[in-house]
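lol forgot to send this yesterday, sorry. struct tokens for the thing we talked abt
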């Protein structure tokens, strides 16, 4: 596993009360994602279907914010064999490495720990589901993604976007239906403040346009969680 992170993993200590992807979260990540992310599996399935239809099996694909490796595992099972993952959290990568080494013992060597995008690699497709909203230097990160894609390469991006109060109330209902208590819902909301920074749908599209992704389709949207499909010209 390639580690080009400068800071120590002690940053994962939740001393500020803010949201961190630490060991506790990493070990129960899928459950957390299913309870807090509308259409979590539906978006992963859509991502895989699009890549199956449009990227050759030996095409280079990277999952940005690969977390526990759910998407990479399904891509591998579909026969893709040039798969890479990048994540900022050592603990998430530890879980991803464990899950993915069950199908390919060399997989962990293709998981990179880094806050910034990989350099000197070119990809046929880049996935960034539910991650860019955590990245401070969004524009620089997007530019690096754009530069690393081949012409006609695909970029699939899912972001939590700004919600109106009406939408937020429905999102709270979604979580209550997942049996989360009001205290748990409120605590996570506070932990994420200033850590997950949503933009409006329009701001996201403007940012993608500015980066050079002139063709952007919305391929899924639920309760403010929006999936964009971008094709590099
Ligand atoms: C909600 S999870 C993403 C879920 C994942 N894409 C999936 O399909 O299951 C967000 C991930 O982004 C990672 N992350 C946060 N900041 C990052 C950064 N600057 N670079 C890379 N990954 C980052 C976190 O460690 C976490 O694993």
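and heres what i got for the seq, position by position
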């Amino acid at each position: 596993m390639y580690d080009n992170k400068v800071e120590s993993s002690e940053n994962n200590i939740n001393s500020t009360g803010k949201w961190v992807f630490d060991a506790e979260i990493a070990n129960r990540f899928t459950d957390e994602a299913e309870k807090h992310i509308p259409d979590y599996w539906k978006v992963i399935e859509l991502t895989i279907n699009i890549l199956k239809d449009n990227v050759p099996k030996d095409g280079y694909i990277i999952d940005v914010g690969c977390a526990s490796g759910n998407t990479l595992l399904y891509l591998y099972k579909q026969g893709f064999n040039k798969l890479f993952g990048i994540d900022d959290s050592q603990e998430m990568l530890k879980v991803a490495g464990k899950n993915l080494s069950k199908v390919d013992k060399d997989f962990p060597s293709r998981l990179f720990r880094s806050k910034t995008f990989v350099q000197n690699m070119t990809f046929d497709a880049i996935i960034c589901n539910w991650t860019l909203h955590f990245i401070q230097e969004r524009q620089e990160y997007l530019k690096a993604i754009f530069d690393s894609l081949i012409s006609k390469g695909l970029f699939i991006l899912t972001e939590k976007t700004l919600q109106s109060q009406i939408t937020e109330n429905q999102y709270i209902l979604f979580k209550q239906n997942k049996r989360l208590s009001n205290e748990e819902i409120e605590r996570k909301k506070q932990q994420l403040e200033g850590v997950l920074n949503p933009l409006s749908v329009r701001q996201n599209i403007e940012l993608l346009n500015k980066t050079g992704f002139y063709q952007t389709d919305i391929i899924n949207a639920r309760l403010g969680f929006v999936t964009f499909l971008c094709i590099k010209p």
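The chain has a mean pLDDT of 94. anyway ping me if u want another try
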